[in-house]
From TrEMBL:
Keywords: ATP-binding, Nucleotide-binding. InterPro entries: AAA+_ATPase (IPR003593), ABC_transporter-like_ATP-bd (IPR003439), P-loop_NTPase (IPR027417). Residues 3-228 form the ABC transporter domain. This is ABC transporter ATP-binding protein. It comes from Pseudolactococcus carnosus. The keyword Nucleotide-binding applies. It comes from the Bacteria. One of its GO terms (molecular function) is ATP binding.
Length: 285
């Protein structure tokens, strides 16, 4: 089974939002979709799950186009920020509606999570707080029998202990029933341990697709005095710079280990710093 996104383009009123995006999603892999505000993540996820149309390009599951094919579309599920449920519908009814629509529902998991998160199944959607709306939508997303689950900002409004429970739940359900899960989020470091592969979108394009390990191993932060760091990093791929007093830190991509001169320190690049640097606009540093 393979999900392929090919040459997707989308514009709104002549503004190009997605410019030729192509991604091959592997089976049974957890992806992190990263990008700054307005980068095009939600638009991409909406197109992949056939909620909106691309101007050109295609989304295929096992080589078959998804557009117009409801059976195939039901193998994908998007949890989005949009509130799609009728306001007065109760939690339990939403579960039943989902089961009828997707032809299956993991009631055991849904009931277990409803209790674990302390969600009242008798409450109407409109009575739920922002955090509990996210929790409800997460439970639905994890309980549908889809092979590809897309979670757009899934932890919106969740407090720290519910976020922790969500991460643990995700790992557990993934090991019980492996499938591809794509998570779009801004809380990179929190989720870094769960993600196998990062896709970074910037300005409507995929600028990088790498495993977290590869990013960490390939990057380095080089610190020291301005003159020493500048000369040590000559010829390296410097993706960003920070400075405080006479001390500077340069962020380097694809760092090759070498003898480190006195006065210079080399440390690993964390994912958050890497992301900020590769998506930085001119004049923002
Ligand atoms: N229905 C629409 N009509 C017009 N412009 C839109 C529409 N939907 C999205 N856009 C524009 O497309 C661009 C990408 O938006 P999108 O929501 O996909 O970004 P995002 O990466 O999900 O951002 P965020 O992290 O802030 O949620 C933005 O400039 C947005 O204003």
């Amino acid at each position: 089974m393979s999900l392929t996104v090919e040459n997707i383009q989308k514009s709104y009123r002549k503004q190009a939002v997605l410019k030729d995006v192509s991604i091959d999603f592997k089976e049974e892999t957890i992806y992190g979709l990263l990008g700054r505000n307005g980068a095009g993540k939600s638009t991409l996820l909406n197109i992949i799950s056939a909620r909106i149309f691309a101007d050109s390009g295609s989304v295929r599951l096992d080589s078959q186009r998804l557009i117009g094919n409801e059976v195939l579309q039901n193998r994908l599920f998007l949890m989005s920020e949009d509130n799609l449920y009728p306001k007065s519908m109760k939690v339990n009814k939403i579960f039943k509606l989902t089961e009828a629509f997707y032809g299956g529902f993991d009631w055991e998991l849904a009931n277990h999570l409803t209790q674990a998160f302390n969600l009242n199944p008798k409450l109407a959607f409109k009575k739920l707080s922002t955090g509990y709306r996210s929790i409800l939508k997460l439970i639905v997303a994890l309980s549908v029998p889809a092979d590809y689950i897309f979670l757009d900002e899934p932890i919106l409004g969740l407090d720290a202990s519910h976020r922790d429970l969500f991460y643990r739940t995700l790992i557990q359900t993934y090991s019980d029933r492996p499938r591809t899960i794509v998570i779009s989020t801004h809380l990179i470091e929190e989720i870094a341990n769960i993600i196998e592969e990062f896709i970074i979108v910037d300005n409507g394009q995929v600028i990088e697709q790498k495993s977290g390990e590869a990013i960490k191993q390939s990057g380095a932060t080089i610190s020291g005095s301005q003159a020493l760091v500048a000369s040590f990093t000559e010829g390296m791929d410097v993706i960003g710079k920070d400075g405080l007093g006479g001390l500077v830190s340069y962020y380097v991509r694809d760092y090759q280990a070498q003898v480190i001169p006195e006065g210079i320190s080399v440390s690993p690049l964390n994912l958050q710093a890497y992301f900020v640097q590769v998506t930085q606009r001119e004049g923002e540093a």
